[in-house]
Amino acid sequence: MFAVEILGLDKIYKIGFWRKKDKVGLRNLHLEIPQGEVFGFLGPNGAGKTTTLKLLMGLISPTAGTARILNQPWRDPAVRARIGFLPEQPYFYDYLTPTELLNYYGTLSGVSVTDRRLRIPKLLERVGLAEHGSMQLRKFSKGMLQRVGIAQAVLHEPEVIFLDEPMSGLDPVGRREVRDFILSFNREGKTLFFSTHILADAEALCHRVAVLNKGELRGVSVVADLLSQTRGNFEVVWQGATAIPAMRSLGAELHAAGELTRAVVSEGKLQAALDALKSHAARLISVTPVGGSIEEYFLQKLVEPTEARQ
Amino acid sequence: MTSRIRAIAFNTFREAVRDRVLYNLVFFALLLVACAPLLGEISIGVQRVLLINLSLSAISIFGIVISIFVGISLVSKEIERRTLYPVMSRPVGRGEFILGKYFGLAGTLLFNTGAMAGGFYIALLLMTRSFTQADANILIAIYFLFLQFVVVIGLALLFSSFSSPLLSALFAFSMFVAGTFASDLRAFAAMGQGPERWLARAASFVVPNLASLNVITRVSHDQLIPFGLVAYNTLYTGLYAAVTISGAVLIFSRRDLK
Fold it and tell me: What is the pTM of this model?
């Protein structure tokens, strides 16, 4: 079963004083996300990522198209109790404490009083806010608010969690924490759909990624496939001699850092490069195939002409 | 459904309390204290009339200001600050949200009006040393003031569901002023002829009849308020509020939350 099926969603915004001009927010988006997957939604700013999430959350209405979440119409209130959502740069009622906020959201999601009493302290513990449960949110840092945001998104134990730029604006420690949360929720069997323009995060977390630009889907790919695609090049790292003329003659650029030197050579010249190292008594450290990256895929899809995409 | 509306209403009330909206009670108390020396200069009968007029007018002004300015921000603030996103992504209908917000502010004003009424009765007791039957009549005037707030909150919500906070405040305030002179408008409609008559008549139905909800002068002079008027005003307010809230729900349900 698919966790999310997007069937031709379109969003055209009417702009201008008389609302006669059209601005494409999203054009004919089709996506299928199986249950249990971590799906990354990539794109530059203004690509349509947030528009897609707002459509799926029922915050805005589509111009055309439909979607299904957990095999039910996406606007069905019953579906809303089975999904979690963390908006981009979330802002919560700052006069509330995290405990009060979670109680409020829990009530709205239909979580019983007994369950709220059990879950909220555990959840605050899990996101590292157990000691701040009775502090007003106006005193929280951005990272702490993001943790509250994650707690509210999973409080009602949803099966699918939508996260809009969850690492945006966080320091490296905060980003690492959010990454760990995403992985742990996925280990619990939840499906995660998150938008980001930080490609390293997508590479570290996602099973599949989609690239969106100017409201159009440019491509979908399996991350493992992207990373395992070798380009027929190998990275050679060695210790010792730094200036080896034979290496240069093979067309490799040498990069020295401390005692180590690295060069990238083609598969056909690999043996010659290893022989050159041996003849200069250099100590071989590693030979690694150079794989593809999400960045390459992302940039390729952004510039690819429309007709080449399919 | 009711638990979600109740939760939203309670949160709205809590927001008003924590955002110090109820600090106006302090100003009300200070106003009563400040007027005490002034009242001491005049005879006891006039003192009582003055105290009733002054206190009830203050309750009305504070309540209307809160109804308009908090009412117009009930929805717009949530959209602007994006606090609405985690709410509307849950199984909460747009109508439930509007109703919760409405009841939350109405509850805040009920509490506010009740506290001010309590303060007023204490001041009255200190002045007259004992309550009379006529003093209970004042409660009806205070109840009517609360009904005015109920009408104005509905208008503020309706206007804020499709226009900016500034315009909403302007519209709501204009309707309040026009509503205060609703009886004049009806009299004008009765006197007029041709299209003017119909126009004035139509306007008199659209504009809330707040004049009927103002009996401050009557109670200050110990005139009894007939039960028929209480029933009429209660029913009228309920209907008027229902129409404005339905309009707000209808508009808000179709609105994109950008």
Answer: 0.86
Q: What is the ipTM of this complex?
A: 0.89
The set of residues, in sequence order, having a beta carbon less than 8 Å from that of B97 and lying 6+ positions away, is B8, B84, B87, B88, B252
Composition of chain A by helix, strand, coil, percent to 5: 40, 30, 30
Nearest to A275 by CA among A225, A307, A310, A236: A236
Residue of A82, A94, A108 to mutate, testing the B interface (most B Cβ within 10 Å of its Cβ): A108
Name residue A15's beta-bridge partners: A21
Instruction: Answer yes or no: do A108 and B7 touch at CB < 8 A.
Output: yes
Domain A2-226 has CATH 3.40.50.300: yes
Minimum mean pLDDT among A133-147, A215-229, B203-217: which range? Answer: A215-229
Quick check: A107 and B7 in contact, CB under 8 A? yes
Query: A78 to chain B: which residues are within 8 Å by CB?
Result: 91
The one-character DSSP state at B82 is T
A69 Cα to chain B: minimum distance (Å): 13
In chain B, where the domains are located: 2-253
Quote the CA–CA distance of A258 and A64 in Å, as a whole number: 59
pLDDT tens-digit readout, B109-139: 999 999 999 999 998 898 888 888 888 899 9
CATH second-level architecture of A231-291? 2-Layer Sandwich (3.30)
The answer to whether residues A276 and A309 touch, using CB atoms and an 8 Å cutoff, is no
The domain spans of chain A are: 2-226, 231-291
Q: What is the pLDDT of residues B65-77, one digit of tens each?
A: 999 999 999 999 9
Query: Are the CB atoms for A252 and A273 separated by under 8 Å?
Result: yes
Each residue's pLDDT tens digit, B135-168: 889 999 999 999 999 999 999 999 999 899 999 9
